[in-house]
Fold this protein.
Amino acid sequence: MIDVQRLRVLRAVAEHGSFNQAATALHLTPSAVSQHVAVLERSLGAQVVARSTRGVTLTRAGQIMVGAAESVAAELEHAKQQVDRLSTGRTQVTIATFTSGGRLLLPGALDRLTAAHPDTVLHVREGEPEDSLPLVRQGAVDLALAYHFDGPLPGQQGPSSSLEWTALMEDPLHVVLPEGHRLADREAVDLAELAVEPWVLGCLKTEAYLRRYAERAGFDPEVRGTSTDYFFARSLVAAGMGISLIPSIALDPQVPGLHTVPIKPPVPTRHIGVATISRRRDHPQVTTLIQAFHDQAAALNEA
């Protein structure tokens, strides 16, 4: 029989990419982590991690076992919630969301949920998709309002992928320019026209995204500042530090003295949606939330 604790250790190794970091997260010694993995490999008769001087990576067998570890964690969390409901008579629902999406879409969805299921106890956790989506797979979060750029969801590759994704809306990025900028009155700009501009960005991931699009446009952007807050980034633009790339839903509230200009195709775009797992999707509260998010996104798309 496979020990659940060893699956938990393997999952931490996969998440952190090394025995040392997994040990820190689990409050174990690196030696104990290594021993857990070694015993798991002996019990399976297969190698689950490939060790190198750069850390560890999962083998095919390791990927399968991490998928199993996430399923076990989700089942245990689901069982715990059922027991809690027996003792309290109330259903607990945990929602994870990224900041700008949560500010725009979450309040109305929570109003809908409260009206339909007034006895539900709500919990909200803020987090970027790379942090919240693993929590959904593990059952620690019922659903996550998340986004991705080009390519799949963070971590949504391989046999351990178990997320169900409901697409909600496209969120194109716009260029934000200071008062008096030479392109401020344009209806749209080509990214190549911004090759000589300094940039200040409101999200760490936006820099990598900008660089990919800038490469296609034939230039290497000069990034002078990166924050984790779009409003702060726009304040820096207003102060004359540079220009910025901001998603549509993060453009409110307005910052005085700024101009927002769309980008000509190909347009950098965030894809916003809701992630859950199949076991949770049929829960009445989760169904209500997904429909509420969908309706609000549809209304925004029509506006």
